[in-house]
């Protein structure tokens, strides 16, 4: 199981255009895999919590699947889990 | 002792000054008051005497005053001033070198002085005297008596001595008695000794006890609608679990359940928890990378189709490939009915000489870089089928004649069922498998056809695959002589089959000899019909989705033929200039079908538009050497997937021209579509039979 997951993460990292990958746990500590900036973790954690809270407030049976933030330079993709947060920064135009 | 008198203002008549005999002129003030006192005191007594002998004697030096002068009142003031005190004492001041009057004169007048002879008993003198006397030290009264005695020693003399002795004896006695008493008590203000007693104070000890402080933890939480919802859900689940536990009789299950729970918990470490999320992210990343393809898939419609009435195009979309499957060729393709983006690819080899391992791979359109599920197999796969209602059950037929069933929900890579030599596996490669409806016992079952000439039905009974021979394909008329003269029918090799969509028992089998047999599940020995279809092996035979009578077949003899099963000869025949690997009807139209050939082309036909030619002939693969092996239409989306012998699967989008639905009758809805399709087909067919007026 874990080998598969590791493989998946590896694939993501080596995917075209991906700049960095971060895994954030519930408290906001990072188990970095590859990243250029660490600031992402705390800030995105809060944002994701807010987004999730919004979604669930609107309908408690609903839940946040993922969050995309597309900026001029690149795209930040956040996929929350119960305990963890997986953040991938990709440059989609490449 | 001098006594100070009170001052007072006395008015006295000067006239009656006859009583001035006693009062000397020097002390008028006191004399006056004294006089009065004496006068009051001795008024009665002395007054009488005076009254008796009163003869009014005038002193010689008395002043003679007139009456007026006599009545004159003189004020006399009593003060505390000493009349004898000088009022103007002057002292020489050396500082000022002159005589200066003293500001205040001492007004003290001493009248009487008597020196006493009392000694304090504790004073040195007293002690000395006592010691002299030889008496013990005593208190003041005794001592004073004793002290007096020595002061008048001369006067006392013998009498004093006697008296003294007597007194001394008395005194001694009294002293003794008094001493006894005195030891007990004396509290006078002169000789006060403080007596105090202290109770025994218990020593103080401090005792303390400290308990461990209760553990503290900071707690903070938010109360949201969804948090409340979550808690409710949890409670519900717990209740359900409790109910289940109450119902569950054997406790062993609980233990097993607990063990399973434990196993699950121990397995899940940091990385595995990210699994699901990682998958989502991977898809997202892929979506970004292949964004344009995704957009095309959804929205692109070839506009140029408007100008080309009779032609259509195929737009290449994703290309699916798996590294480990590069040397294998795609031998089977199947879309999943429930998950419309999921399809299965069977990998193996058609080459007789190069037989090795195989693979079962599942792809999703959402992730074109990596398969969703991978199952490696020992033998090459030749066919597969996904159950229509249970999307996790996959039946697979192998080159070595085995059939297997995989359950995608299971985490193992092994099939849940596999046929073995004992359980009636085929002796030759299995060319086609197909799921059937559940039988009467609600067991799943599927059919397989193989080169060993058997059509076998496999039933999933609990843990086993139970096989039933449905029919044996025997070559009609061909009988060979067996070793002992027994006549063995030569088996034909089945290469494909297809079940009728509506009529359950009816199915078609294509053989290697080029014949197509129409069979029934009920009759195991006889065919209902045989068609001499092709010159070479029948690679695929497929019933039309709409028209119940029509089926299509393709073969390596470069032809594709369309049949009406009631007629022995084909309706349509198409020559495609290359060996046809596979053919498939479209799910949306009864007249559209596509075929793939070994020259890498996809031929799409729409009989309602063009009866003789393909409306689209498009090479799909880059290298011309790659042979296309299979094709499948997606049931929902307008895309087709094409597999080739290099292990690639290419997805293509059908242009609008290829997807034409009959526009003839307006107001016709889709459910009625089949009928229209049927009518369409019928129209075509009838043209071949005899000219008829078409029912437009």
Automatic annotation (TrEMBL), chain A:
Pfam families: Robl_LC7 (PF03259). Coiled coil: none annotated. SUPFAM superfamilies: Roadblock/LC7 domain. Keywords: Cytoplasm, Cytoskeleton, Dynein, Microtubule, Motor protein, Transport. GO terms for cellular component: cytoplasm; cytoplasmic dynein complex; microtubule. Its main location: cytoplasm. InterPro entries: DYNLRB1/2 (IPR016561), Roadblock/LAMTOR2_dom (IPR004942). One of its GO terms (molecular function) is dynein intermediate chain binding. It is found in: Cytoplasm, Cytoskeleton. Residues 5-90 form the Roadblock/LAMTOR2 domain. Gene3D superfamilies: Dynein light chain 2a, cytoplasmic. SMART domains: Robl_LC7. GO terms for biological process: microtubule-based movement. Acts as one of several non-catalytic accessory components of the cytoplasmic dynein 1 complex that are thought to be involved in linking dynein to cargos and to adapter proteins that regulate dynein function. Cytoplasmic dynein 1 acts as a motor for the intracellular retrograde motility of vesicles and organelles along microtubules. Belongs to the GAMAD family. This is Dynein light chain roadblock. It comes from Oncorhynchus kisutch. The gene is DYNLRB2.
TrEMBL record, chain B:
Residues 39-49 have a biased composition (Acidic residues). It is found in: Cytoplasm, Cytoskeleton, Cilium axoneme. Its main location: cytoplasm. WD repeats lie at residues 531-564. Gene3D superfamilies: YVTN repeat-like/Quinoprotein amine dehydrogenase. The keyword Cytoplasm applies. Keywords: Cell projection, Cytoplasm, Cytoskeleton, Dynein, Microtubule, Motor protein, Repeat, WD repeat. Residues 9-18, 186-197 have a biased composition (Polar residues). SUPFAM superfamilies: WD40 repeat-like (SSF50978). GO terms for molecular function: dynein heavy chain binding; dynein light chain binding. Residues 19-31 have a biased composition (Low complexity). Residues 1-55, 123-197 are annotated as: Disordered. GO terms for biological process: cilium movement; determination of left/right symmetry; outer dynein arm assembly. Residues 135-151, 168-185 have a biased composition (Basic and acidic residues). The keyword Cytoplasm applies. It comes from the Eukaryota. InterPro entries: Dynein_IC, WD40/YVTN_repeat-like_dom_sf, WD40_repeat_dom_sf, WD40_rpt. Coiled coil: none annotated. One of its GO terms (cellular component) is microtubule. Belongs to the dynein intermediate chain family. Part of the dynein complex of respiratory cilia. Consists of at least two heavy chains and a number of intermediate and light chains. Interacts with BICD2. Interacts with CFAP45 and CFAP52. Interacts with CFAP53. PANTHER family: DYNEIN AXONEMAL INTERMEDIATE CHAIN 1 (PTHR12442:SF11), DYNEIN INTERMEDIATE CHAIN (PTHR12442). This is Dynein axonemal intermediate chain 1. It comes from Oncorhynchus kisutch (Coho salmon). The lineage of its organism: Eukaryota, Metazoa, Chordata, Craniata, Vertebrata.
């Amino acid at each position: 199981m874990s080998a598969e997951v590791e493989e998946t993460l590896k694939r993501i990292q080596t995917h075209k255009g991906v700049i960095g990958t971060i895994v954030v746990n519930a408290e906001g500590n990072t188990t970095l895999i590859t990243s250029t900036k660490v600031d992402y973790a705390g800030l995105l954690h809060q944002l994701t919590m807010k987004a999730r809270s919004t979604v669930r407030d609107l309908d408690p049976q609903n839940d946040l699947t993922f969050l995309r933030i597309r900026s001029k330079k690149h795209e930040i993709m956040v996929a929350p889990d119960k305990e963890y947060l997986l953040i991938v920064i990709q440059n989609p135009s490449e | 002792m001098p006594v100070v008198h009170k001052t007072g203002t006395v008015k006295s008549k000067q006239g009656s000054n006859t009583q001035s005999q006693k009062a000397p002129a020097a002390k008028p003030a006191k004399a006056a008051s004294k006089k009065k006192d004496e006068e009051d005191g001795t008024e009665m007594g002395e007054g009488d005497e005076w009254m008796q002998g009163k003869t009014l004697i005038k002193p010689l030096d008395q002043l003679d005053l007139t009456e007026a002068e006599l009545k004159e009142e003189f004020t006399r003031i009593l003060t505390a001033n000493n009349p004898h005190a000088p009022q103007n004492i002057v002292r020489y001041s050396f500082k000022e070198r002159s005589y200066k009057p003293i500001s205040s004169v001492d007004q003290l007048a001493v009248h009487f002085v008597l020196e006493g002879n009392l000694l304090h008993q504790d004073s040195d003198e007293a002690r000395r005297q006592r010691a002299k006397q030889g008496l013990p030290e005593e208190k003041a009264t005794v001592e004073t008596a004793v002290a007096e005695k020595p002061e008048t020693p001369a006067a006392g003399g013998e009498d004093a001595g006697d008296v003294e002795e007597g007194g001394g004896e008395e005194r001694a006695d009294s002293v003794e008695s008094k001493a006894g008493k005195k030891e007990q008590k004396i509290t006078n203000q002169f000789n006060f000794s403080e007596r105090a007693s202290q109770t025994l104070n218990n020593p103080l000890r401090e005792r303390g006890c400290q308990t461990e402080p209760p553990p503290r933890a900071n707690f903070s939480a938010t109360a949201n609608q969804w948090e409340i919802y979550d808690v409710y859900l949890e409670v519900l689940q717990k209740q359900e679990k409790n109910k289940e536990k109450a119902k569950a009789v054997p406790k062993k299950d609980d233990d097993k359940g607990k063990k399973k729970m434990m196993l699950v918990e121990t397995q899940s470490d940091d990385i595995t928890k990210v699994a699901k999320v990682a998958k989502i992210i991977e898809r997202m990343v892929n979506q970004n990378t292949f964004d344009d393809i995704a957009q095309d898939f959804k929205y692109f419609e070839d506009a140029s189709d408007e100008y080309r009435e009779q032609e259509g195009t195929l737009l290449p979309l994703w290309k699916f490939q798996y590294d480990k499957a590069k040397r294998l060729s795609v031998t089977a393709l199947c879309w999943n009915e429930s998950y419309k983006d999921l399809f299965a690819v069977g990998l193996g080899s058609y080459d007789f000489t190069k037989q090795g391992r195989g693979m079962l791979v599942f792809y999703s359109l959402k992730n074109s870089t990596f398969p969703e599920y991978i199952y490696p197999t020992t033998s090459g796969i030749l066919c597969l089928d996904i159950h229509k209602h249970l999307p996790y059950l996959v039946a697979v037929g192998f080159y070595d004649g085995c059939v297997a069933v995989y359950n995608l929900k299971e985490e193992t890579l092994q099939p849940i069922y596999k046929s073995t030599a004992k359980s009636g596996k085929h002796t030759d490669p299995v060319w086609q498998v197909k799921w059937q409806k559940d039988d009467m016992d609600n067991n799943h079952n599927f059919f397989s056809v193989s080169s060993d000439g058997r059509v076998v039905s496999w039933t999933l009974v609990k843990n086993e695959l139970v096989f039933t021979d449905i029919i044996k394909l025997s070559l009609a008329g061909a009988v060979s002589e067996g070793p002992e003269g027994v006549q063995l029918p030569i088996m034909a090799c089945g290469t494909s089959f297809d079940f009728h969509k509506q009529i359950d028992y009816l199915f078609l089998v294509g053989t290697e000899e080029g014949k197509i047999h129409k069979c029934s599940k009920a009759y195991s020995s006889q065919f209902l019909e045989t068609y001499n279809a092709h010159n070479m092996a029948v690679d695929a035979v497929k019933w039309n989705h709409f028209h119940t009578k029509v089926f299509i077949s393709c073969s390596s003899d470069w032809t594709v033929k369309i049949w009406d099963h009631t007629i022995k000869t084909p309706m349509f025949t198409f020559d495609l200039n290359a060996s046809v690997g596979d053919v498939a009807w479209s799910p949306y139209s009864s007249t559209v079908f596509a075929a793939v050939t070994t020259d890498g082309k996809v031929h799409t036909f729409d009989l309602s538009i063009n009866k003789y030619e393909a409306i689209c002939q498009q090479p799909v693969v880059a290298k011309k050497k790659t042979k296309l092996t299979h094709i499948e239409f997606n049931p929902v989306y307008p895309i087709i997937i094409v597999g080739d012998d290099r292990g690639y699967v290419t997805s293509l989008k059908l242009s609008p021209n290829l997807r034409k639905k009959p526009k003839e009758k307006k107001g016709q809805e889709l459910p009625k579509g089949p009928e229209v399709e049927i009518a369409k087909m019928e129209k075509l067919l009838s043209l071949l039979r005899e000219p008829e007026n078409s029912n437009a």
